[in-house]
Amino acid sequence: MSEDLNALMKMVEAGRTDAAEPGLVAFVEANPRQPAAQFYLGIIRLKQGRNAEAAAAYRAAARGLPGVAAVHSNLALASHRAGEPEVARLASRRAALLAPEGGGPYVVTSEAAAAGADAAAALRAAKRAFYLDPKSQCGLLLEAARKAGDTMRVEAAVARLLATDPRDRAASINSAHQLLKNGYGADAERLYRNILEKSPNDPDLWFNLGVTLIESDRFEDAAEPYARRARLVHGRPLNDAPAYAEMPADPVVPVDRTCARHRLKHDAEQYHYLTEQGVLPPEYQDEWKTYQELLDGLDPEERDAISFKLDDARYGRIARSYNRFVHIAATGWADADPMNPDLDWSAIEESYLDADPQAVAIDALLNGEALAAIRRFCFESTIWHQLKGAGYLGAYYRSGFNDPLLFAIGRGLRERMSRVLGPHGLKLMWAYKYDQHMSGINPHADFAAVNVNFWINHAESNLDPESGGLLVFRKPAPKDWTFQRYNTAPAEEIYAALGEDRNNPIRVPNRENRALLFDSRLFHETDRFSFKDGYIHRRINITMLFGHGGT
Length: 551
Prior knowledge:
Distance between the termini: 48 Å
Shape: globular
Strand content: 5-15%
Strand order of the largest sheet: 3-10-7-12-6-5-4
Largest sheet: 7 strands, antiparallel
Number of strands: 12
Radius of gyration: 25 Å
Helix content: 40-55%
Oligomer: single chain
């Protein structure tokens, strides 16, 4: 077994599944018959809720490790969650024969009983699983006891999870996850903060804490752990706030070298713009020229590639800035209201509620000061690290897109549209910046209640005022489609589902400072666009998702 696989397996065992996933996927693609690799990939997929893929990985593992009970036990669990009861039954029986003392079959029995609304049977099976494997199955016992109304066992399970040794990283992460899953967000937060006292420079732990706070309806509170996570991954900006002075200056994990022609073009333009604005130190004045040289030196295959990896020589020339926080143009926004005071919000809300399907455009969303501030934040901040093959770049909440002005906009929207957004907290936000000569986002729907999308590019940047915005289709995602399917299915599959509705979308042209509110279940895609060349003329949209899907 290779050293690479051993290292990846250890990462999974330590709870670093996000970090291990890319390497493990690549290893399995190159070695599909390696059962241990398939088993550990199954662990990742099961954790992600991608149950059918997990079951497929465990089936592959079982072919090479037929006598290992854990493989069959996990196959049973993944198959049960994927809706394959017969496969789950056979795998569970095999696991019980191989290891009668194992708790895996009881996990499946408990989950099946819970799905059938038999809380008492679910608790009986969970107690048996916990007895056989108390370290791994305390969360199962907590969930079953909570649903069965067994207060005493709930309290005991919570106490046991909270007592997890913070030095055991994987066990602590699992305990925190189980607490959050069962509605004990404050306890999960406490557990993560205990672990972080021991490991303050672990980006995955800060990320998990951010997720915990968001799931506990504390979206804005997640900004601090996400800001720390982002600095650990991308390094501290040269103009960083004093609050982060004790953090490492450089990334603590390997920098992602994935690159593309449009990424080099963007970074060359952005560093040139930052140089012109006078915000970079003297030693960075020629940074943009280095990016331009790398762009000009791409071979034909690389120029046409969706992505490629920078080799050591080229990466070495831009290592201090590529995928790094070099400059953050924080707005310093405090309590001021960012919204346009002249809008008739009551009429806008009424229009949305009366619409079928529900979608309404809002022109002049922000006041002038807020628009200028958020535009400067997006133009200057080196946060555009998420590479999208179609020709645009993303900035996400977890990775630096977390200025206080964004929260003020979210609050302003909820306050003014209380009937539409009041019941739904802000759950996600991001921004995309587009190359003028490439394309945008394929059709998809989002797992939320309401989407708010707004454009901050200059009015004169859009060369075709009748396009450049969004197409919102009048048909929602089918109710039997999973999030994975309606968010990432190929365009042809979604167009087929739309049928005739594909030909009659709601076309909302791009306008400076225009927002679009619409039902998140509706399929939507980027309209064709034609924008002026030049960095300040790039199309930029900001998206906020409110509420959960199906709410």
